[in-house]
Specification:
The chain is 52% helix and 15% strand. The protein is built from 15 helices and 12 strands.
Length: 328
């Protein structure tokens, strides 16, 4: 049996640890919050981030990073803005890491693969992503994900490790494409929530999704990712989930914005991070450097950070210069 670490006990980290423990693995779960640590230890639950789910006994929570050992496989499931700081505090340099994080570092505009490489040096690295709400994974709903690594053997190793009757993993070599799709879909989910919060119907949501796919494809390909990745599990698959599913935190933020609430007010009511908020500025900054047009992302940034009303943003998108569907 592999020594397994899951770094981060938010909803996704806890659900992923639950999945691996249900498969029979012993999972060492790093928990930052003392309250959450004690509840998992004493009650076998994480009611803060994954309420209603009883955790298997195979999960071993801990909070002291000095207990980490270099051997084993590390699954890192923490918000993108905290990844570098946590990795920098690792007392060891693990050989095998898998990122479960869906975001871009705002300050440096770096994808997670770059952050891992800069902080941990040379290592076998993979990113795991796809349409996977944490609660449904913990409940055992059939789910598909993709594991991307430049090391084919390592990708297949992780594929075998995580796959069972509840979760099926596919492999890919397009690390950057998968990471960028995972980041952009969260931004588009905010936009999707906003149009629903404004009271618009299925026509508008479908328009948002299909033009969001075009936007995602331009960005991913310009950054060096593969167009097939955008059409697959990490791209269209995860985008459909987060733009339509009620469990999406990013969609919820957009929905509340569409109803007229302010961002600060919305965030006060949220325990978990909505990655699309900070990622929106990082994606737009990268797009502008590349000369890639991303009108939906631009409007999300204006609504989130510049005080533009969602209704005005929708109107401006609809009145943009007319053009062919396929161009550039």
């Amino acid at each position: 049996m592999e020594r397994i670490y899951v770094i981060g006990a938010g909803s996704w980290g806890t659900a992923f640890a639950h999945h691996l423990a249900r498969k029979g693995h012993e999972v060492n779960l790093w928990v930052r919050e003392e309250k959450v640590l004690k509840e998992i230890q004493n009650k076998g639950e994480n009611s803060t981030f994954l309420p209603g789910i009883k955790l298997p006994p195979g999960i071993k929570p801990f909070s002291d990073l000095s207990l980490l050992e270099p051997s084993g496989i590390y699954f890192v499931a923490i918000p993108s803005k905290f990844v570098r700081g946590v990795l920098r505090n690792f007392p060891v340099r693990p050989e095998f890491t898998v990122s479960l994080t869906k975001g871009i570092e705002e300050e440096t505009l770096a994808p997670m693969s770059q952050v891992f490489r800069e902080e941990l040096g040379k290592l076998d690295y993979a990113v795991l992503s796809g349409p996977s709400f944490a609660l449904e994974v913990a409940q055992g709903s059939p789910t598909v994900v993709v594991v991307a690594s430049r090391n084919r053997e390592f990708a297949r190793k992780i594929q075998s490790l995580v796959s069972d009757e509840h979760l099926r993993a596919y492999t890919s070599e397009d690390v950057l494409g998968v990471e960028l799709c995972a980041a952009v879909k969260n931004v588009l989910a905010i936009a999707a929530g906003a149009v629903s919060g404004l009271g618009f119907g299925h026509n508008t949501l479908a328009a948002l999704i299909v033009r969001g796919i075009a936007e995602m494809r331009r960005f991913v390909v310009s950054m060096g990712g593969q167009p097939e990745t955008v059409a697959g599990i990490a791209g269209v698959g995860d985008l459909v989930l987060t733009t339509t599913g009620a469990l999406s935190r990013n969609r919820r933020v957009g929905y509340e914005l569409g109803r007229g609430r302010k961002l600060d007010e919305i965030l006060k009511d949220m325990k978990m991070v909505a990655e699309g908020i900070t990622t929106s500025r990082a994606v737009l900054s990268l797009a502008r450097k590349l000369g890639v047009e991303m009108p939906i992302t631009e409007k999300v940034v204006e609504v989130l950070w510049e005080g533009k009303s969602p209704s005005r943003a929708v109107k401006e998108l609809m009145l943009r210069r007319l053009k062919s569907e396929f161009w550039g």
